[in-house]
Amino acid sequence: MDMDMDKAWRPQEVEQRMYREWEAAGLFTADPKSRRPKFSVVMPPPNVTGELHLGHATNDTVQDIYVRYKRLRGYEVLWLPGTDHAAIATQNVLEKRLAAEGRTKEQLGRAGFEKVVEEWYAQVGARIVDQLKRLGYIADWSRLRFTMDDAYVRAVREAFVRLYDDGLIYRGPRIVNWCPRCQSSISDLEVDWREHMDTLYYIRYDMADGDGALTVATVRPETMLADTGVAVNPDDERYRRFVGRMARLPIVGRELPVVADAYVKQDFGTGALKVTPGHDPNDYEIGQRHGLEILTCIDKAGNIVSDEWVPDELRTRDAPTARDRVVEMLRDREHLVRTEPYAHEVGHCDRCGEVIEPLIDEQWWCAMPELRDPAVKVVEDGRVEFVPRRYTKVYLDWMAGLRDWNVSRQLWLGHRIPIYYCDNAAGHDGAGVHAWASVDEPEACPVCGKVKTRQDPDVLDTWFSSALWPFATMGWPAPSEDLDAFFPTAMLGTAREIIFLWVARMIMTSLRFMGDIPFSTVLINAVIQDRHGQRMSKSKGNGVDPLEMIDKYGADAVRAWAAEVALRGQDVRFDEAKIEGYKNFANKIWNASRLVLGAAEGVVTRPAAELAAAGALTPFDRWILSRLDALIDEVTGALDGWDPGTAIEAIRRFAWDEFADWYLEAAKPAFHAEDAADPARVASSSVAVHVVRSLVVMLNPFTPFISEAVWQRLDAGGEPLIARRAESPWPVSLGLRDEGLETEMTVLFDAVKAVREAAGGLRSSRRQDLGMAVRRVAALPGQELLESDFGRAALARLAGVQPAESVDAAATVVVSGLEVRLSAPVAAGEGGGAGQTDRTGMERQLEQTKAKIVALEARLANDDFVAKARPEVVQQARDDLQTARDRLVILEEAFTSA
RNA sequence: GGUCGGCUAGCUCAGUUGGUUAGAGCGCUCGGUUCACAUCCGAGAGGUCAGGGGUUCAAGUCCCUUGCCGACCACCA
Questions:
Q1: How distant is C1' of B16 from CA of A522, in Å?
Q2: What is the pLDDT of residues A295-312, one digit of tens each?
Q3: Staple A710 to which of A373, A561, A593, A793, CB 3.0 to 4.6 Å?
Q4: Residue A196 contacts strand B, CB under 7 A
Q5: Which one, of A510, A368, A417, A507, lies nearest residue A156 by Cα?
Q6: Positive or negative, the Cα torsion across A236, A239, A243, A247?
């Protein structure tokens, strides 16, 4: 064994070297030909817009934990990594960078911009991969994918063409969310709603026949230029006489029909609504219902354009705004009735923050019902499960209200839409134009044979390509070994804000193209917030770089923290102290291992089960093996139940509180036996090695570096734990669980603590002079061990006092029906003696015991309790009362005699 | 507006089907130079479980309600 172990575990010096060794040994590469059961995960591709933050780290760590766990349990594992081109987001980032240099993408031109993009992808993509490696992830880098890889681009085209040919993708004019800055449409999901304080304007529309007038309320008076109707509620008595007549639009003079539509709320504003189908989604729908004309008065730059009224090209948002001009004109003509302040939500582009202009535009749409229905069913049927469970409802509710998906974007960056037109006519899919979808670059028009063709200028929504991630990364649409072996995947770890943008769409496309679910479990990670409860984000500048934490505490510590918090189901405030705690824990493991390895040096260890069967073990040995069995069950159960937080906490508690603090302390005399063949040394070091071995295997998914470092020293073969493929190294319960023994040991430990406390006022050198005698005063369960010679000796040693047959009590403690007496110190004096500290301790014991008796007596005096509670609960209360009374008797006796 | 989540020790959080005296880590106080570890060891203080009401022999846990905080969804101009 390698005894060259520093006193402290220094992750910074070791982790990167270890990782490079694993990678060089090709340990992460999945084998589709393997006969082992398969476990596969696709890594959510991070956007290539910047570095990763702690949110990614927690999410990906959970995946690595499961990938490692399954691998240790004998599965052939594929964890497929990759990155996403993130069309609109990346284009925004790059445009901002260019702007900072005083340049624009237009100056560079398409080709020049593309070069900038490629450099960016190469540079940032590499940095992201480096971060992932620093975290110790055993992703299969040989299969690294990027959504702009040639093969992936082809898969995206294939998917589009199939949907188009099946009639699910169509082009048409509809009202869209237009971002005037990005110069692109965006989907409903990419609209970020923010509260604005605006003004609500009340405007009088006179009736065309001169008989009366309607007053409408609006926050966007400038859109009145494109009004094509006025709507009122059909049940509204006030306006009944106006319905079917014509109103006259102020300023412009156009006549507008007054229609009755249930959408209109009678109690909002005046109960009359100006209808602008060209610039408001709701008005658009009202217009559709009543056959209203659609007019446009705002162009794609956000400027007012109107046939009737053309102010000098004015952006609607800049001062003096078109809105102000319109209001001014209304006021001049005495059509402005009044104004009032008004708070409401306004849509912004979630990438650049610009206010969204709803307007009518030709776009590509993906019809949802046919894709949605099967995707609803697999979740309802439980074939796809969300963890935490409550997200099932979130998913289903959203799916129920799905509208067609706008999949086209007017960007420079992204997957070009694989639609081609022959040159017979201009325009899109209109009359006389041949349009078709094609995976390959077409040589000629399939209809008329014209050779000259051109491709649609639009690109696809980023999420259209991400939607194919689970299978397009494995080679789809071509058949592949990977698809056969690793699809569908087992689980998806992701963030809750992309359940709709991404998760739902993967389920839909997967069912459509693969005929199967993409994954069976969706793990929704907690959102990582800063100390003040603000979500970490790049724009807020409150993000924490995982590398900074790794540099300070090591990747193991960051990972263990992530495991603890990621799947709690609750958002977490970042608490650096927790990471530091796990760094200390890694050090604890390191040092416990040093002790155990030192003890086992030169010892021919034997299997723990064999020693147990041979009766060669002390109660301490049997106790820790019993606890280990319990731990294995707990950790395995927690991991299988998607609760890594419970698993890592259980390991930590066992390793620190039970194994290190009690077992190793108790085993030290055996460890220190000179003779390597000493039976006690052989037994205890065999048990300790067994425990350490089990621990580091269970720790491997969480803290792989410290785990492998210790494993190397346990296993001279030098093969990394994760490379163990012949048999599963995951520990199994030895069947040595003995809860009776655990109870007895608890009594012993309580006694040790009590004696330590009673002798607490003494310096340790004095404590060694104290004599200690144990006397039985009542028979209670669990005290047998403590009464035995072994128990007395163990108690004396762990408490640091001398065993004796009997002593004159200077201090007495009571534990489970046993009275433990401590003699007066040889020279009681300065600093107080045992008697002094004992009194306060005993007073506290007395108080607590009396309180407990009172409470239990009251409980048992309640007839309802005795009659209605479950019998075992009542019996328990009776037992407890008896115990407390026995204890009180002893305590009072000791107290008066002390 | 709708839906969902949260409110437990100074801080960050656990708390399974209701059942002894509600836990952990960090922080705090006191005490520790023994050969695994001061990144440590031992002991301790600290909570009317957001407020109110109800169900029950018994409520942090179940129900109602109020108040904050947060997330998501949403077509009220």
A1: 22
A2: 988 888 888 776 655 555
A3: A593
A4: no
A5: A417
A6: negative
